[in-house]
UniProtKB/TrEMBL annotation, chains A, B, C, D:
One BP annotation, GO: nucleoside triphosphate catabolic process
Top-level taxon in the UniProt lineage: Bacteria
SUPFAM superfamilies: all-alpha NTP pyrophosphatases (SSF101386)
Single annotated GO MF: nucleoside triphosphate diphosphatase activity
Keywords, alphabetical: Hydrolase
Protein name: Nucleotide pyrophosphohydrolase
């Protein structure tokens, strides 16, 4: 039986993966932020010429679904590695942000 | 006592937040991917003129630390909302991707 | 009477502007490429929640028209500065690229 | 003898290229802005793991030089097409912006 997936476990796998390949010197916060934005753009690229309606159906095509899932993984990988090197807890950061947004944009 | 934070709980909060403001029509996969990339660029903007060494110290300044944490939250918010509308499990996607990368880039 | 605007003249103005402020050390190709992508995302931000039809009418609103024009200027500024530091002629690069695309995607 | 290259001539070539392939329906301002940002990120990708010093030498390697030049062309292509559909004169926009920046950031 395997333990359930969580963010800390994935961060550990990513850190071991990078360490085993001596990639840490490349993983400055500046470089990781750039890599994150590059992966986010690869996600945009999949959607760039689609109508809103077509974009809602991207998962119907198995090849496109695989490509989207793969890019989501890449974005998350760099986001978690950036958080790791900066000491940020991403889930707590988002929870706080939603709290602030609830005060900033009160529901009608 | 509050339940521990996890991705599913944050996705629920984000979905309720958007629903209460009638924002779902804007949340096409195409628009969410664009918004994700815009937030990733706001993160890059913080680092764009810094040297690698300066970028490693961004959390030393409380204002910059707050700004970085805030942008991390925004990136994660759009990533989780995109996954929600597309039915992608982001943690499983990343776990699979690390498996594939381990085969693709064997450690030396 | 002023000479007509051209790319070389604008590159000269940009180089003088940066030199007068001692900004050249920041203008590595890596940083200029990042700044270019950040400005391109600020352009995307204007359009991110618009329908295709709304996006076609952005110039009808004077404030939005000004904002779009301003971001176009920022993108071009960093593109021309990047070309300057790398010794690339942007117009010749594009002319060559269209030649190659005409061979690669023959018109029906 | 060929006429010298200028922005208007390149915009004409790009418009004819798109029209011959019936691509105009895809060329909404929103889609062109997204495509521009995707190409800008492909430029960032070339530099993302380089040190500032390595980034200053990218044109020394003919393959990398070609790749950088190609991405510069792609960024300019989408910028000029976006300007064309929006009726923006990119050189005048940048000239105005430099005027404004000179007032906003007076040289020391």
């Amino acid at each position: 039986m395997t333990e359930p997936l969580d963010v800390a476990k994935l961060q550990r796998r990513l850190a071991e993966f990078a360490a085993a390949r001596n990639w840490q010197p490349y993983h400055t916060p500046k470089n990781l932020a750039a890599a994150l934005s590059v992966e986010a753009s690869e996600l945009v690229e999949i959607f760039q010429w689609l109508t809103p309606e077509e974009s809602a159906r991207v998962m119907d095509n198995p090849d496109t679904a695989h490509r989207v899932t793969d890019e989501v993984a890449d974005v998350l990988a760099y986001l978690l590695q950036l958080c790791e090197v900066l000491g940020i807890d991403p889930l707590a950061a988002l929870d706080d942000k939603i709290d602030r947004n609830e005060r900033r944009f009160p529901a009608p």
